[in-house]
């Protein structure tokens, strides 16, 4: 096969352009810090990078949901702590009111104090988180309890998705922990106030105190349930953050360049390019213009 000057020139320019294209690609990578700057450079890699970004975005949204839900549950726990303290105070008043030597005025004063505590209990159970009531069932825009502690919410709980296909059920049914053996706590408190006003010491020290203890145990049990939900959410948050960190590391491995390596490659290509120019000037034969000078 005859090798002409035209063939040498064409091959030389083709290789020189290939070197220039490689240098341009490296310069783009060094300036952007990314392995690929256009989908056409590596469609499969770009597809994987986009999938990773979507997964990270979804995980970050789950993290926000988990964080918001932890705040909700912590608010519930704080409200129940206040509720338990109030009920325990009412219990002390019941025991004190069952004391026989008290006068009617004393019992009426105790009854009034119990009535005030009922209002305080309603207030603490009407706590809201970010404008949503935490014990109204799914009726989160409505107050769950009236001032005399009658429940007005519904008996539905709220589900929150905290990971793909994973949901946690929030215990938001206020009737669950203010009703014991079919008896609403509001009715029991009314009976206690009536017994105090009537001076019924036997009822106060007997059935009413026993029923109040059952209600107190019920609230304590419900708070334990809230605690279990909180523990699950904290564990989910840790898993979410660990997974997101791993995903971001994987994304960085796929889309970010190794700066030191790329600098080395760029220097190598630059040397090759300069060598190509030098060799090209030597191997290409002089043109007719060179002889006419």
Automatic annotation (TrEMBL):
Keywords: Bacterial flagellum, Cell projection, Cilium, Flagellum
Domain Flagellin N-terminal: 6-140
Main location: other
A biological process term (GO) from this entry: bacterial-type flagellum-dependent cell motility
Subcellular localization(s) per the UniProt record: Bacterial flagellum
Keyword Metal-binding: no
Gene Ontology CC: bacterial-type flagellum hook
NCBIfam families tied to this protein: flagell_flgL
The name this protein goes by in its record: Flagellar hook-associated protein 3
């Amino acid at each position: 096969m005859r090798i002409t000057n035209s063939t040498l020139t064409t091959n030389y320019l083709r290789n020189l352009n290939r070197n220039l294209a490689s240098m341009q690609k490296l310069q783009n990578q060094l300036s952007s810090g990314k392995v690929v700057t256009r989908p056409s450079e590596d469609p499969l890699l770009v597809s994987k990078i986009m999938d990773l970004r979507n997964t990270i975005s979804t995980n970050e949204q789950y993290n926000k949901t988990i964080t918001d839900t932890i705040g909700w549950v912590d608010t519930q726990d704080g409200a129940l702590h206040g509720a338990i303290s109030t009920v325990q105070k009412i219990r002390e008043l019941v025991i004190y009111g069952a004391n026989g030597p008290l006068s009617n005025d004393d019992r009426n004063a105790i009854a009034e104090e119990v009535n005030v505590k009922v209002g305080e209990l309603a207030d603490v159970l009407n706590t809201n988180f970010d404008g949503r009531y935490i014990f109204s069932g799914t009726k989160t825009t409505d107050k769950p309890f009236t001032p005399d502690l009658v429940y007005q919410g519904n008996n539905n709980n709220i589900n929150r998705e905290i990971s793909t296909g994973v949901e946690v059920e929030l215990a938001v049914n206020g009737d669950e922990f203010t009703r014991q053996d079919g008896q609403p706590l509001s009715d029991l408190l009314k009976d206690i106030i009536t017994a105090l006003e009537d001076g019924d010491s036997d009822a106060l020290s007997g059935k009413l105190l026993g029923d109040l203890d059952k209600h107190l145990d019920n609230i304590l049990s419900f708070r334990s349930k809230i605690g279990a939900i909180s523990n699950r959410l904290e564990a989910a948050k840790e898993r979410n953050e660990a997974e997101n960190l791993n995903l971001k590391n994987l994304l960085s491995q796929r889309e970010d360049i190794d700066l030191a390596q790329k600098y080395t490659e760029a220097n190598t290509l630059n040397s090759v390019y300069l060598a190509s120019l030098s060799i090209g000037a030597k191997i290409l034969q002089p043109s007719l213009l060179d002889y006419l000078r």
